[in-house]
């Protein structure tokens, strides 16, 4: 009996968007209008690439970025929840599927000593160039019309489950914890026995309820959370069963 916990990162594990938090490193803690307005829908990764060039051009170094990123607050109750999962790793496999990047997530999880809680992190690969600039790439290519071109979370989840099956691992239930519009695609992939946990008041919750109103509800159960304590209460019930 094993459960798979799938977490988004921004506004789910941390209570902010890591990509917008990094702007605190910019001169006067803001971006020039031209750069800010250069974002085009579905091309967030390209936009962040330009932001990182701007920071690099302004002499913002890796250690300053790291110091800034590790001050991001975790969502209410999340530290307790991750501690609880860490104590029960024999029951839970735990992955992150996020549109952030490997450098930011790695810094934040390691600073709080939570990197051991997660079995795998699926996010956009990032690295510092020889000149000290942070660079970011697309996670993968896909053919899903619903998702941003750099990441379809459904594809990630499906490939992970297929790989686990090859290793002889299957899950009693998948619990998907997220907040954003790009979390809807993987939620629609979940089966009747699985559970989606959208964060209260965020886009994912709104999109799931719109589907229910248009009489094409998601197959899985839905449990809304506002604090990670709500998620922990559910997981405690799950392992009691």
TrEMBL record:
The active site is at 8 (nucleophile), 10 (proton donor). One of its GO terms (molecular function) is metal ion binding. Keywords: Hydrolase, Magnesium, Metal-binding. SUPFAM superfamilies: HAD-like. It holds the Pfam family Put_Phosphatase. Its cofactor is Mg(2+). Substrate binds at residues 19, 99. Mg(2+) binds at residues 8, 10, 179. NCBIfam families: DKMTPPase-SF, HAD-SF-IB. Belongs to the HAD-like hydrolase superfamily. PHOSPHO family. This is PHOP2 phosphatase. It comes from Menura novaehollandiae.
């Amino acid at each position: 009996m094993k459960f798979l916990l799938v977490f988004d990162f921004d506004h789910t594990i941390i209570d902010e968007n890591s990509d917008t938090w990094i702007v605190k490193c910019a001169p006067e803690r803001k971006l020039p209008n031209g750069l800010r307005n250069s974002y085009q829908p579905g091309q967030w990764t390209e936009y962040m690439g330009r932001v990182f060039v701007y920071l690099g051009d302004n002499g913002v170094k890796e250690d300053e970025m790291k110091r800034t990123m590790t001050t991001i607050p975790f969502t209410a109750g999340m530290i307790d929840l991750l501690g609880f999962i860490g104590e029960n790793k024999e029951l839970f496999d735990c992955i992150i599927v996020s549109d952030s990047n490997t450098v930011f997530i790695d810094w934040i999880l390691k600073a709080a000593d939570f990197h051991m809680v997660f079995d795998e992190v699926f996010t956009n690969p990032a690295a510092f160039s020889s000149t000290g600039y942070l660079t970011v790439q697309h996670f993968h290519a896909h053919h899903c019309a619903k998702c941003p071109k750099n990441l379809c979370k459904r594809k990630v989840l499906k490939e992970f489950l297929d790989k686990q099956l090859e290793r002889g691992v299957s899950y009693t239930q998948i619990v998907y914890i997220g907040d954003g519009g790009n979390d809807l695609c993987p939620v629609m992939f979940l089966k009747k026995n699985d559970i989606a946990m959208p964060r209260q008041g965020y886009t994912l919750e709104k999109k799931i309820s719109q589907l229910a109103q248009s009489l094409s509800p998601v197959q899985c159960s839905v449990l809304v959370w506002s604090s990670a304590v709500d998620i922990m209460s559910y997981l405690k019930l799950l392992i009691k069963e």
